[in-house]
């Protein structure tokens, strides 16, 4: 395996809606096992970019390879090799934890034996053994999120895309969620994560910040703080975001 294998390569990736340029010539690379934060104010173009990278929406122009597959012509292969979790797409609330794992394992093409092994690992890791037959709908939000992430990486995808995965939970619960992220990254799964929480931004290896459709900065949290001459990612973000024209 190459020491620095690039699993996401985006080159001037652009999406227009009529005259409006939602994502404007973004160019960046992400390495295998990296935790890559994708930040930006509301309306900056993050979701639009992520949908293109997941093979869900065709770019207007530019190129990208995801896990080595072409974003225009190999979208089915991209979908097979990634995991995806968002606040909106989640588990089935009216199925139990076990039923959800079985269901998604089946969708991802795992064998019954693989599903059995994964289920055991997953409920043990999350400390959910005694809850396994409970409906997902009855779990607290933080547990749902952890379960949802674990299911998104059930098939050990090359990359997992997380769209604001920890919305609405406290910093301690977020920190526990991030322990799962680190474990996945240690196994070589690349993490692409959007967030509005600056404590989470600090957990990323590198951070990109979008402003009005453009990828304005990309560096480690430490380097960004240094180059902006500030002490926190909050201040870096504020300095960039206040120049934005879009947003609420
Ligand atoms: N299908 C569409 N047609 C027209 N405009 C769109 C469409 N989808 C998104 N946009 C616009 O593109 C811009 C970027 O939206 P996008 O959802 O990518 O932003 P975002 O950075 O993900 O914001 P948020 O943090 O609020 O989710 C917004 O101004 C939005 O209104």
TrEMBL record:
The keyword Nucleotide-binding applies. Keywords: ATP-binding, Nucleotide-binding. Residues 8-237 form the ABC transporter domain. SUPFAM superfamilies: P-loop containing nucleoside triphosphate hydrolases (SSF52540). Transmembrane segments: none annotated. SMART domains: AAA (SM00382). It holds the Pfam family ABC_tran. One of its GO terms (molecular function) is ATP binding. InterPro entries: AAA+_ATPase, ABC_transporter-like_ATP-bd, P-loop_NTPase. This is ABC-2 type transport system ATP-binding protein. It comes from Dyadobacter arcticus. The lineage of its organism: Bacteria, Pseudomonadati, Bacteroidota, Cytophagia, Cytophagales.
């Amino acid at each position: 395996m190459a020491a620095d294998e690039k699993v996401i390569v985006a080159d001037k990736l652009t999406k227009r809606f009529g005259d409006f340029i939602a994502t404007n010539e973004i160019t960046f690379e992400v390495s295998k096992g990296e935790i890559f934060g994708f930040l930006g104010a509301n309306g900056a173009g993050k979701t639009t970019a992520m949908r293109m990278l997941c093979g869900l929406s065709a770019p207007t122009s530019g190129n990208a390879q995801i896990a080595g597959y072409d974003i225009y012509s190999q979208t089915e292969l991209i979908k097979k090799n990634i995991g995806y979790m968002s606040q909106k797409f989640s588990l089935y609330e009216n199925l139990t934890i076990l039923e959800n794992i079985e269901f998604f394992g089946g969708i991802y093409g795992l064998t019954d034996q693989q599903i059995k092994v994964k289920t055991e690992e997953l409920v043990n890791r999350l400390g959910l053994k005694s809850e396994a037959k409970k409906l997902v709908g009855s779990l607290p939000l933080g547990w749902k999120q952890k379960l949802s992430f674990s299911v998104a990486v059930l098939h050990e995808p090359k990359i997992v895309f997380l769209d604001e995965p920890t919305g609405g939970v406290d910093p301690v619960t977020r920190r526990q969620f991030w322990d799962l992220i680190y474990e996945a990254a240690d196994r070589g799964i690349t993490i692409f994560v959007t967030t509005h929480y600056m404590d989470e931004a600090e957990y990323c290896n590198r951070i990109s910040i979008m402003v009005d459709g453009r990828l304005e900065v990309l560096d480690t949290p430490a380097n960004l703080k240094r180059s902006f001459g500030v002490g926190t990612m909050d201040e870096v973000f504020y300095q960039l975001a206040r120049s934005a024209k879009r947003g609420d």
